[in-house]
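We close this part of the discussion by returning to an individual protein. In the encoding step, the backbone of a single protein was reduced to a row of integers, each denoting a local shape. The sequence in question and its structure tokens are set out directly beneath this paragraph.
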Amino acid sequence: MLKIAIVAAVLTVPSFAQGWVNRSGLNGPAPRSGHAMGYDAAHGYTVLVGGYSYANGNTTTYDETWTWDGSNWTLRGPAPSTNYTTALAYHGGSNSLLAFTATWNGALNLHALAWTGTAWSTVGTVGSSSSPTAAAYDPIRQETVVYLTPDRVGIWNGTTLTSMTVLAPAVQLQLADDISMAWDPVAGRIVLMGSQLVYGYVNGTWGFTGTYAPRMYEWTGLGWAHRQLTNPPAR
């Protein structure tokens, strides 16, 4: 199940009412999927990179970096170079918005790039087992965690990018493009949400039922601790 987000519009919640207000403007980015977004506290705007659209049998790839300052979209330049997905996270320890990408040149490499306000600058590269799908900053450990596979993550500590095998894998996650990560200040941990395919008997035959079960994990610093969910519906 692909997680698809369309950015034909930026929607904000006004203080006087519950609901969304269309803030698209006429000169913003085209509708797309597969992009990444993150807030850059150092520069005071939200950054959007990459993405693609599919229509009439044709795929359009957007090699773009856009910023949204609360009122206007501005095209800043190309997106970070990648052959795969991109994940964004703001690293509070160095006050910089980071893009995590992957490229293939005989081997797969994970890259960390910092947004300078005008361009993306590579600050770290390490061999990787997969492309990044989500990232989040842990202010207690002062490191950004990048999800790669159920048993591997990338770690950016402000100066060095590493790839590590986790001691407790997120074994039930099966759909990489469904994964989201965020910092939970109440729990004091990074929270990861993903999905698991649900199997069972359908018309007397064992197989995929067409439904998905949500799975939640917390980052311990060494691995993923599974947290049982009772309220969110499958998606």
Q: What stands out?
A: Confidence is low (pLDDT under 50) at residues 1-8.
